[in-house]
Amino acid sequence: MSSQLGKFLQKRIEEKGLTVYSLEKKAKLKPNAVRNIIEEKSKNPSAQVINAIARTLECPLEEIISKLSVSSDKMERTTHPWDKDLYTAIVLATEDRASLAQIALTLEDALSLIKEAYLYAITKNPPAVDLEFINWLIHKKKETI
Question: Which of 69, 110, 119, 137 could pair with 105 as two cysteines, CB 3.0-4.6 Å apart?
Answer without folding.
Answer: 110
